[in-house]
Design a protein that fits this description.
about 300 residues, alpha/beta, seven-stranded mixed β-sheet, two-stranded parallel sheet, 12 helices, about 15% strand, elongated
């Protein structure tokens, strides 16, 4: 259907739609089910089949990226399961400092790594610096670092010419959206390179010129899935509860005409409902606004409590 696209490991259905909708709007009528996509894609104008709707969500996406990746990247999950190497004292390069990068940098720093961030965005770069994390280019650190983690959601982040310059047994892995952040094609087709599979999802690639090798995890795919078990169930519960509530909303309003054949962001009061449903498990008790307090900040007593543009 979509010629030339060969995904190796899409993370969830929304990532498929995130690729399909911008690139093949005319063919999207062939999509047979509702999809739930992030609000970053909610401005796409597309005609879906009759009674097919897509609803986006705000905070569970960020919750997933921030807290899920913080758990499943280093300790006790992906890196440790794959390699069991010491993280403390090592130089760890995190490519990208969005929510995924922030979570990975925090986890690696907590494990004792000396973290360095690469960034294109000056705001994200400044955020890293304010957390005490140096911001450099990959070229500045490629021959010195011990661990490299791509988190950008972009392509061509670590190329084969970077890997050639890395120290012996440097670890290279990806926890970004797709499998093209690391130049696996360039590595696999490099003349004379040798691949040694240490165990499933952990390979050592040796370059002929130097006889030095690098460890690539999960073949450049999502290492927290390939080398571990992904996000913990509590984090996924937030995402899945959000999707179920979105579907219930669509079903409840199916005959009212409230939702046209468009892409929607889930109403904020339903976002808050998802969060509220999970508080009891952690023993939390919410403070209640008084009517006077609610009026003072111009919100309903029962919420929602933040404007649509608010970033959590």
């Amino acid at each position: 259907m979509f010629q030339g696209w060969q995904p190796r490991h899409p993370r969830k259905g929304s990532h498929l739609v995130g690729w399909v909708l911008p690139c093949a709007t005319a063919k999207a009528k062939q999509i047979k089910h509702p999809y739930f996509i992030p609000d970053s894609l909610s401005s796409i104008k597309i005609t879906l089949p009759k009674q097919q709707h897509a609803v986006g969500h705000r905070w569970p996406k960020d919750f997933d990226n921030l807290y899920g990746c913080r758990h499943s990247l280093p300790v006790p999950d992906g890196l440790m399961r794959a390699t069991n190497v010491m993280i403390a004292g090592k130089i760890a390069v995190v490519c990208g400092y969005g929510n995924v990068g922030k979570s990975c940098a925090a986890a690696l720093k907590q494990a004792g790594a000396r973290v360095i961030v690469t960034e294109i965005d000056p705001i994200c770069a400044l955020q890293a610096l304010m957390e005490g994390i140096p911001v450099l280019t990959l070229e500045d650190v490629v021959s010195e670092a011990d661990n490299f983690v791509t988190t950008t959601g972009n392509k061509n982040i670590i190329m084969v010419h970077h890997m050639k310059q890395m120290k012996n047994n440097a670890i290279v892995c990806n926890i970004g959206h797709f499998d093209n952040e690391i130049d696996m094609h360039g590595l696999e087709t490099y003349p004379g390179v040798k691949r040694f599979t240490i165990k499933p999802q952990t390979d050592r690639w040796v370059f002929p010129e130097t006889n030095n090798g690098i460890l690539v995890l999960a073949e450049g795919r999502l290492m927290n899935w390939g080398c571990a078990t992904g996000h913990p169930s509590f984090v996924m519960s937030c995402s899945f509860t959000n999707q179920v509530i979105a579907q219930l909303e669509l079903w409840k309003e199916r005959g009212t005409g409230k939702y046209e054949k468009k892409v929607y962001v889930l109403p904020k009061h339903l976002d808050e409902k998802v969060a509220a449903l999970h508080l009891g498990k952690l023993g939390a008790k919410l403070t209640k606004l008084s009517p006077a307090q609610a009026a003072y900040i111009s919100v309903p007593v029962e919420g929602p409590y933040k404007p649509l543009h608010y970033r959590y």
